[in-house]
Amino acid sequence: MGINHLTIQEQHGLLKKKEIKPSQLVSECVKAYEESKDLNAYLEFFEDAKDRAAQLDGQQPQDHPLWAIPGAIKDNIAMKDRKMTCASKILENFVSPYNATVIKRLQNAEFINLGRLNHDEFAIGASGFYSAFGPTLNPLDRQRFPGGSSSGSAVAVAAGLASFALGTDTGGSCRLPASYCGVYGFKPTYGTIPRDGVAEYAPSLDTVGILARCPLDIDYVYQQISGKDIMDESSRDPQEYFCSCDEEVSLKGLKVAVFRRLLERCHPAVQQAFQQAYDVLKSEGAEFKDVELDVEDILLNTYYVTACSEASSSLSRYDGARYGMCLDAQGKTIERLYAQTRTSGFGHEVQRRILLGNFFLAEQNYQQWYAKALSIRQHLADRSEQLAKEGFCTYLLPGFNEAQKIDASEEDTYSSDLVGVFANLMGVPALALPLSSGRHGLPVSFQLSGARGSDRRVLGIGQQLYLRLKKS
Ligand code: GLN
């Protein structure tokens, strides 16, 4: 495998020692991209990436681990003077006038931006097949879903088309595709990575996530892009949380909470992957506690009520008058303009979510649905806080089963969300770590999670497990 498949840590080492040049690294990604265009991971590969690399060739390598590292960005994150389509026809020709905060922060580290990545329209979906610009394929098996919604992000990292990628994660959208494609996917504590310039899906659940080839690589990116931003009211420094744990953590004596009833609902292959991680942690001296939440069987409902309700509100701005596509409304009413633009601009899954959301938010339904979902989320947050007080700041969670065949039923793709939505509903960080234990030799994952603010600790424990599991 070429240098484009190494970890950022390894690539950085070679760049620093001047054993490779930035343009060599980028050329390898370009070559891999040319050879695997059928994967449809990129909506746009930036031709000027090569020029940027050539500029950096002439400079002294910097100590920052992201210096000259090629990364790529999900196309619902704004990049100045570039298109931002959200993989939707309604924004097909929209060009962003500014950079998202995360992009500015990555640019400060002088990463090389390779392009805009494909995903499910407006980050809605779990398959990678709901993009208006064609499905993304799974490089491990083209007959299976790559997972979504951040499909291009996972595929780019898995196929050597970028060293890391940004995605978004509202209910598992970084972790599920990462797992399906055999790479690492992370969602941060809600708010620790700013969302200014990131298209909203369900703003109380939305996070910017990171995909890479090991937890340490994710941590490099996390350190660069996290932290309070005056442009985002919901953003926080991780230290602001009651449990802002140290990332230098020993597995010996580590207190780990296990949500057994969540695990019981999972496929045996997922339970097996969980057990593998459990055994390693146990052999290293971790202590476990089984925790019941009393809401395990309604997590998915809680998520879908919240996400659809908020989506119906977030997506109301794409109306033909303000952004993007506008179908000619001459002689027609404004209502007709809205209806025509939105009917042809949005795909079928997005429309379904909007309709459901409008139903949940209707005056007569609000208390029964949205308000109830909010109270369940409060219950989860309280439980998490209570666990932290008892010293349980780390959680071991089940992960995702192997990638589904592309003829799987819609019901199956919805049910794959169960283990993803947990961390978003609780507002906590979560990392999916793939193991190659599936029946068909495809990855099955487990997840590490923890109290709000414990992002770097989760990544630190993740890296230790990654190193141990790699050896075994
Ligand atoms: N699959 C989930 C959904 O469609 C999660 C999506 C996401 O995390 N963006 O809502």
- Small molecules bound in the structure, each named once: glutamine
- Largest sheet: spatial strand order: 1-3-2-4-6-5-10-11-9-7-8
Radius of gyration: 21 Å
Q: Main β-sheet, in a few words?
A: 11 strands, mixed
Total number of helices: 16
Unreliable residue runs = none
How many β-strand stretches?
11
Classify the helix fraction into a percent range.
25-40%
Write down the overall geometry.
Answer: globular
Which H/E pattern describes the elements? Answer: HHEHEHEHEHEEHEHHEHHHHEHHEEH
Specify the structural class: alpha/beta
Residue fraction in strands: 5-15%
What's the average pLDDT?
A: 94
Protein described:
The protein has 472 residues and is an alpha/beta fold. 39% of the residues lie in helices and 12% in strands. It is built from 16 helices and 11 strands. It has helices at 8-16, 22-35, 49-57, 101-108, 151-158, 175-181, 215-225, 260-264, 268-283, 299-314, 334-345, 348-361, 367-389, 410-415, 418-426, 455-471, and strands at residues 42-45, 70-74, 112-117, 164-169, 184-187, 207-212, 255-258, 287-290, 394-398, 430-435, 444-450. Strands 1-3-2-4-6-5-10-11-9-7-8 form an 11-stranded mixed beta sheet, sandwiched between helices. The longest helix is centred in the C-terminal third of the chain and has 23 residues, at 367-389. The mean pLDDT is 94. The site of glutamine has 14 residues, from strand 4.
